[in-house]
Amino acid sequence: MPELHGSGTPNYMGDMIEFITASSANLTAQNRVAALSDEGVLILQQRMVFTQTRLLLPLDRFHSQMAPTFIELELQEEWTEEALASATADSDTVTVTDEAVKQYQSWLDEDNVERREALKIVREHSRIRREARQHYTSLYK
To answer: How far apart (Å, rounded) are the C-alpha atoms in residues 31 and 82?
Structure first.
């Protein structure tokens, strides 16, 4: 990860040999120093599979599986940005962010998780995007 903290800063690296899981408690926004783009996630997955199997799969194969997650995260980011934009100047951004994420996840799970399930169907993505945008706009006006 060259110049992770800006131009001229030291390079960082990830160890692709040892795979471990991280506790969700350690994955808070406050602890995050970087995030991969959608393409970065796909390339990382492709490299991990290749490292373990020597099978080079096209990025489209990974994207078809990750599309629901990418849409979910895109909408969560939009929802949170809208919440932060409507917050008062003296609001705690961590609290506003955490509350917005909880509201968004609850909204996805309404109606017996129908929306979350709909994310798995590509032709439903535009409908879910539209509904999410209408809902968070009504919340944060």
So the answer is: 22
What residue has token string 């962010």?
A: 97
Single pTM value for the model = 0.82
What residues contact 116, with CB distance under 8 A and at least 6 apart?
72, 108, 109
Statement: residue 76 has pLDDT above 90: yes
Token pair 């949170």: residue:
80
Q: How many CA atoms lie within 13 A of 132 on its CB side?
A: 32
Residues 6-59 pLDDT 10s: 788 887 777 767 777 888 777 777 777 778 899 999 999 999 899 889 999 999
Cβ 115 vs Cβ 128: under 8 Å? yes
What are the CA-CA distances from residue 17 to residues 78, 100, 114 (Å)? 35, 36, 39
DSSP 16: S
